[in-house]
Amino acid sequence: MVNTKMDLRILSLVLLVALPACVAYNASVGWQTISQNSPLIVANGGTSGLYPDQTLEAYSDAINSTSLPLALLCDLQLTKDNLAVCRTGLNLTTSTTLATVMPNTTTMTTYVVRGASQTGYFSVDFTLAEINQTKAIQPNIARTPGFDGQFALQTPEDSATGISLAGLPGLMLWLNVEYPTFYQQHPGKNSLASYLTTFLKQYKPQYLSATEVGILKLLVPTASRSATRLVLKFLSTDLIEESTNSTYGQILTNLTDIATFAGGILVPKEFIYPTVPLSNGSVSGYGYYSGNPTTLVQDAHNANLEVFVYGFANDIYPSSYNNSFDPVLESLNYVGDSFTVDGIVSDFPSTVAEAIFCYPDGYDNPSTIRAAPTPVRNPLIIAQNGASGDYPGSTLSAYVAAVKGGSDYIECSVQITKDGVPICRDGANLVNTTNVALNPDLFETKFTTYQEMGSGVFSFDLTLEEIRTLRAIIYSPFGVVNVSRDPSLDGKEGILTLDEFLSFAKNNSGVGVYVNVQNAYFVRTVKSLDMVSAVVTSLTTANLTNVGDKVYLASEDSSALAAFQSLIPSVQRVYVTPDTGDVTITTAVLQEIKKYADIVTLDRAFVDPFDSQTSFLLEKTSVVSAAKSLNMTVFYHFLANEFSGLAFDYRADPILKISYLISEYNLDGFITDHPATLYNFLYNNYCWNLLGGQKTVNYAANLSPLFPVSPVPGAPAVAPSPALSVAEPPVSYLVPAGSPLPNSSIAPAPSSNPSSATKLPLNLLTSIVLIFILTLLLN
Ligand SMILES: *[C@@H]1O[C@H](CO)[C@@H](O)[C@H](O)[C@H]1NC(C)=O
Ligand SMILES: *[C@@H]1O[C@H](CO)[C@@H](O)[C@H](O)[C@H]1NC(C)=O
Ligand SMILES: *[C@@H]1O[C@H](CO)[C@@H](O)[C@H](O)[C@H]1NC(C)=O
Ligand SMILES: *[C@@H]1O[C@H](CO)[C@@H](O)[C@H](O)[C@H]1NC(C)=O
Ligand SMILES: *[C@@H]1O[C@H](CO)[C@@H](O)[C@H](O)[C@H]1NC(C)=O
Ligand SMILES: *[C@@H]1O[C@H](CO)[C@@H](O)[C@H](O)[C@H]1NC(C)=O
Ligand SMILES: *[C@@H]1O[C@H](CO)[C@@H](O)[C@H](O)[C@H]1NC(C)=O
Ligand SMILES: *[C@@H]1O[C@H](CO)[C@@H](O)[C@H](O)[C@H]1NC(C)=O
Ligand SMILES: *[C@@H]1O[C@H](CO)[C@@H](O)[C@H](O)[C@H]1NC(C)=O
Ligand SMILES: *[C@@H]1O[C@H](CO)[C@@H](O)[C@H](O)[C@H]1NC(C)=O
Ligand SMILES: *[C@@H]1O[C@H](CO)[C@@H](O)[C@H](O)[C@H]1NC(C)=O
Ligand SMILES: *[C@@H]1O[C@H](CO)[C@@H](O)[C@H](O)[C@H]1NC(C)=O
Question: Where is the signal peptide (predicted)?
């Protein structure tokens, strides 16, 4: 089965070698690994992030989606008849269908493992033939259970045979022994050494790792005959290594000694980038920061030991905030100028391959991005409320980071205050984006429920003065699934008015603005507030209403767009679709939209929707191509790196999603919470750039084409739903400043607010100071 696929693979390698290769190495010094080859990708049980681990499917997918050199890892467990099976963990019920297959009379057993009593179903109590009746299941509940019970288990012999039949140079077997002392005692005395000696002689695996010194020392003579590299796997530093009765931390202090019996070490990724908890000491449940790298890699290389790193999976949380939830960036931290590890063990090997082979220059340092000319016309990068994935949205730091991160446009989601001042906030409800809940006076008196808006504290019920007392907090769209963004700047920065936002943009080297006017119809009809007049005043004051100004004026209200069209016709208008999949956008709907705007921002629900039951992509949609055939410009809303927002097809890899959207849909721009990730994809991803012929690198090594995502054949289609209704009942926004609205007792006068106007210079000064501080931090 593996070999049919191989032929294709070889073919594609041959074809691709002719292209300029894309490899991360310095031509004059090569790779900074001991072998001077590219770092080894070690697929932890195959693509175990998607398929149940250590099955033919998981292994075959790793080969299909990853470049060579690649090692397939099998976690060894011995059986009652002293044979073996590849499974992770001692307890078979977590990774197999054993519980449903075995007679219900079978009872669990108890063993002492690493000094602790454990009860469960252990492989040493079953023969291989018995275990072979079970099928693999996905032990990780964050991953799809859709393949559970379908795939047969593999033995180390199966894996070795498959790999050798594949005949692919650079495809290797990595056998890991997690419980040496236990298997030296069970099923019988010396079981492990006897099994491994035979296996090494017969199958000559390329790598054998074990968590204990004793077994490795025993195997040195055999391993040298089978050319197997022995690797000592480290567990946490304070844990006792049973064969030496010293801690892993103590063993690590003498690398020279390790080099007498092993060729390498396999360490948790935290051994190289230590974990620094948030300042309040919390790690569990929240993200953390990475400390500066240790010199472990350099030290081990000096002792002639290879360094392999484990613990990589795209869907782990808590994770380091330093990587902006981008698993490619995380891997790149281990492959660089100051040091490069010899191999990375991951549940998502294709992501490691992207990092190693597609980003030879790494990611751009944000402080240098704006200086770089951008020669080709790529899709626009529109930063949603600034770099809101890393900073509280719509704050100065979010906008500064967005500009530095390479955004073409920065977005302000415009809301309005009770006294008619437009402000930038993600949603009119201030509960999730400000610290209003910490202000009992405001919170209790202003908490309201509107049929159209739900419950909360709304900007249009607070005066600007009241809003000035609030501070922004970061909003985590995936907070419901417990993935929270970095809260360290919460409560530190004030709320920006639209005027302040526009001044910031004008002072920042040509960045454009995407002014997204939200709830205009609602506040006009229910609160008698005129957002259209207010926004027109702000844009006019900022002198941003000329043809050629980098301004997009967006709204989900066709009535507001119609009013903008008659008031400031030269500003480009964007119609924003709702962020729900329960309406359909037909060609007729698009024609209706085109009456108000030539540009449409499509929510992801209309472009790459996924099945809410299975979280796999639904069939490809045709809304983008329908809009394109009407000559409309199409923006996508929205990209965010967090794995919890991604369909399983994307392998918890935001880069694969970007790659899929760009190759499948001719999109003109992306609204994103993580603009720097998109920038680096567009301008530093050689695997993708090669297609556009923009960059060439003189590297002679493997190319890792980006894994081509597509909905699985036979994926269900989007359920039929009513057409989106674009037109709104007539409403007049065109009220001269200062005059009361008809039928209105509130009579706001949207205009340039004197208090915000006088505050401008002070705020600009603050901006400059902040930018200066941030520049220092980012450099
Ligand atoms: C890998 O590719 C081969 C050949 O295209 C295919 O038959 C096989 O199903 C693929 N494996 C997986 C897990 O998709
Ligand atoms: C490559 O390495 C050489 C020698 O260390 C160094 O002088 C040169 O700057 C490096 N080139 C790049 C592109 O980093
Ligand atoms: C064991 O019992 C469960 C329910 O108690 C049943 O679903 C399962 O089929 C039984 N397994 C066997 C092998 O009889
Ligand atoms: C093994 O799995 C069984 C069934 O899920 C569970 O009851 C038992 O506690 C587990 N044992 C260990 C040591 O995790
Ligand atoms: C396990 O069962 C499969 C059939 O499901 C068979 O092809 C394979 O040879 C068996 N392996 C072992 C080790 O018994
Ligand atoms: C392991 O070391 C500890 C303290 O270093 C000692 O108390 C204990 O007896 C040792 N155990 C064995 C089995 O040698
Ligand atoms: C480290 O191990 C080497 C080789 O086993 C030994 O010669 C040396 O004394 C050890 N160093 C220390 C500090 O224990
Ligand atoms: C991670 O981010 C924190 C907070 O910004 C910073 O202090 C730390 O230096 C960063 N770590 C690395 C390795 O860059
Ligand atoms: C706040 O965020 C949570 C989690 O995303 C969401 O369920 C809730 O509706 C939001 N509340 C408001 C007022 O937006
Ligand atoms: C630590 O900080 C996070 C983020 O602000 C917060 O959610 C969490 O509750 C805090 N933990 C403790 C123990 O205070
Ligand atoms: C407004 O901007 C335009 C160019 O966009 C410029 O030509 C004009 O001089 C500006 N007007 C003022 C009053 O600054
Ligand atoms: C789109 O633009 C092209 C070229 O400008 C034009 O020929 C075509 O008629 C337009 N199509 C529609 C539907 O407006």
Answer: 1-24
